[in-house]
Amino acid sequence: MHRLFDEFIxxxxxxxxxxxxxxxxxxxxKNTYNILKWCDREGATLTSLDPVDWIGELPDDxxxxxxxxxxxxxxxxxxxxxxxxxxxxxxxAEGLQRHWSCLKMRSLDYFVSPQVESFDAYLVDGDHxxxxxxxxxxxxxxxxxxxxLIVLHDVAKTTNARKDEYYDPTFIPADQIDGPKQGxxxxxxxxxxxxxxxxxxNRFFAQYEFDILTSREDGLGLLIRx
Length: 226
Fold this sequence. Notes:
Elements: H1 5-16, E1 20-24, H2 30-42, E2 45-49, H3 60-63, H4 86-93, E3 100-103, H5 107-110, E4 121-124, H6 130-143, E5 149-157, H7 184-194, E6 208-212, E7 218-225
Parallel strand pairs: 1-2, 1-4, 2-3, 4-5
Antiparallel strand pairs: 5-7, 6-7
């Protein structure tokens, strides 16, 4: 998502001016860095959710991951993979962490926890599968208000638009793995249908506007609460 920030995300944020933002999925922190530079400029704050372990020059409470979570378990080339978040190191080097809080937990745990809050904008780039994304959207919908923004990654052309990927499959219900419905774009379409959105047809009283901002391989989708 970080490669698309300047061209696509920054203009949306600048138009709607969200003050409180939630990021689902940090990985190397490159988009976190972009968001926090925007927050610094606009007087906004960012909360990020990510359960993974990191290495590098970071505080212990940020570096240590969620107990029992293993990123992309079962894929041999990711076993014992260490993630060095260069973007987060830049955040701390430039003092941008004053606008930031990081919770080392899964999004689906956060949204049903006592810590849950409402945000003006959500950036969804976490576990890339139908079950996780549609559940995230339905939980975000509980707190969405007029002009709430939801930005989603990998919705166009990318493999994950119509095919699931499981970062740690032990947290996915067995009956949801490799099911008949897969992918991020499929989850968005079904979410819109479930909440009365227009989806790709013409529904009256749509609760969300939906647009694919870019059709390139790592395309962005944007939901706006009406």
